[in-house]
Amino acid sequence: MAAPKRAARCSNFGMSQRILHPIAAVLLTLLSLLNLDAAENPGKLKVLFLGHDSKHHNSNEYCPLITAALAPDDIDIEYSTKVDSLNEQNLARFDAVMLYANHGLISEEQLNALIGFVEAGKGFVPVHCASACFGRFPRFVSLVGARFKSHKSGVFRASIIAPQHPVMKGLAEFESWDETYVHGDHNSDGRTILMERVEGDTREPWTWVRTQGKGRVFYTASGHDDRTWKEQGFQRLLRNGIVWSVGEARSKAWEEARNKSQK
Ligand SMILES: [Zn+2]
Question: What domains lie within the chain, and their CATH numbers?
Answer without folding.
Answer: 11-261 (3.40.50.880)
